[in-house]
Design brief:
There is one protein chain. The chain is built from no helices and 11 strands. The protein has 127 residues and is mostly beta strands. Strands 2, 4, 5, 6, 9, 10 and 11 form a 7-stranded mixed beta sheet that branches. It has a 4-stranded antiparallel beta sheet with strand order 1-3-8-7, with no helix packed on it. The mean pLDDT is 94.
Amino acid sequence: QVRLVESGGGLVQPGNSLTLSCVNSGPTFIDYPMGWFRQAPGQEREFVAGISYDGGTTYYADSVKGRFAISRDNPKNTMTLQMNSLKSKDTAVYYCAAGRMRGNYYDYTDSGAYDYWGQGTQVTVSS
């Protein structure tokens, strides 16, 4: 069973940084693509960043490219999202997710492609 737990959210001022972590307390997910999504009040859940099973390939939403960095440590069952130069529009609940490959192609930006989700962690960017 895969059980994802996020941590690291909080209140931060604009321009500052925050690091989110996602730990899998279940079996190793070394073969699973993973990603971060976020959902602001009254808005749809949106893709933030994705990472291949081996960490070799990463994907970012245009809104966070150059500011956020996704990484993973498979032996430790951990995925991280380093968020720099935070803006008020980054305020949202952030979710980590993992999905199983079902072919040669995986759409990291599609929330429907993921099978497992964490409970979310709140990030608030405000002065």
